[in-house]
Amino acid sequence: MDHQQLGNTGVFVSRICFGAMTFGGSGSIFQVIGGLSRLHIMQAIEGSLVRMNTDHIDLYQIHGFDSLTPLEETLSALTDLVRQGKVRYIGCSNLAAWQIMKALGISALGHLEKFVTLQAYYSLAGRDLEREIVPMLLDQKMGLLVWSPLAGGFLSGKFTRDGASDNEARRSKFSFPPVNLERAYDIIDAMQAVAKRRNATVAQVALSWLLHQPVVTSVIIGAKNASQLKDNLGSTDVKLDAEDLKQLEEVSRLTPEYPGWMLAGQGSDRRPGQVRDWSRFTVTKP
Questions:
Q1: Distance CA 103, CA 22 (A)
Q2: Residues 267, 278: contact at Cβ < 8 Å?
């Protein structure tokens, strides 16, 4: 298994991470228990340490935005946990770019621990992250941990335009994350062509595409059985060439939005050297 540097830290993590969302639990995934106050964070960490029978957590991530609790309070509490040795690094999940930048600013001004990772949804069928968040992550050197890389199983290869589906898949019972079906079926058609060329499965192509994105640190998989796990792990051996990536890019690219299309024009000037085109978060030579 290959490893990647975790954000701007000195830690390296595996390119594939095993998630536990499919194990146990009940209720809505949007259910929030008690918010990001110091009280609730301290209660939560103590409960986690007991349940996992450990004295520390390597990466502790908040999983949403609390509009009632000041970020200063949240970051102060997380900083105390790091200084107490109960947490090594802190991260966040499902936040907007402006919320993350505000948090980083507060950490810098207050000499508090800063978020080193973002855990977020990203897939060939859902590339919204690329509008604001990906450029921010690259600029701030934050790590990206991808959840639902197969769009809730929709990109597993078991769902097709002709109506084929997997009745056992979570996607069959709960349409999450949301996808544009017609667009997603076009993407699956392209993935099938690439999979055939690479002697790989559609799911492996979906995961491999993410692993080819410079912003991605690790991809979180949620395999339900050994065969799925083996298939997902095989994605690290699937190497996509320029033609593969171009085909997948063209069928899944985002519709240009302002200010993205303006930034693209402003970034393609004639100055010597390398110019950063933030609309496509790649380095180009004019």
A1: 30
A2: yes
The token duo for 150 is 């197969």
Domain layout of the chain by residue ranges: 3-257, 258-286
Please, are residues 159 and 171 in contact by the beta-carbon 8 Å criterion?
A: yes
Report pLDDT digits (tens) over 181-234. Answer: 889 999 999 999 999 999 999 999 999 999 999 999 999 998 888 998 898 999
- Classify residue 197 by burial, with Cβ atoms within 10 Å: 0-12, 13-18, 19+: middle
CATH code for residues 3-257: 3.20.20.100
- pTM attached to this predicted model: 0.88
Exposed/middle/buried for 78, CB within 10 Å: 0-12, 13-18, 19+? buried
Cα distances from 224 to residues 6, 36, 89, 282, in angstroms, run 26, 31, 29, 36
Upstream peptide bond of 259 is cis (omega within 30 degrees of 0): yes
Angle, alpha carbons 253-257-258 (nearest 5°)? 150
Pick the closest to residue 19 from 77, 64, 63, 78 (CA basis).
63
Q: How far apart are CA 140 and CA 152, in angstroms?
A: 29
Measured CA to CA, the distance from residue 251 to residue 246 in angstroms comes to 9
- Measured N-to-C along each axis, helices 202-211 and 242-252 cross at an angle, to the nearest 10 degrees, of 100
Q: Which residue has the tokens 């080819």?
A: 212
User: What is the DSSP annotation of 56-100?
Assistant: -EEEEE--S--SSS-HHHHHHHHHHHHHTTSEEEEEEES--HHHH
Euclidean distance between the first and final Cα of the chain, in Å? Answer: 37
Q: pLDDT tens digits, residue range 141-183?
A: 999 999 999 998 899 988 888 776 666 566 566 677 888 888 9
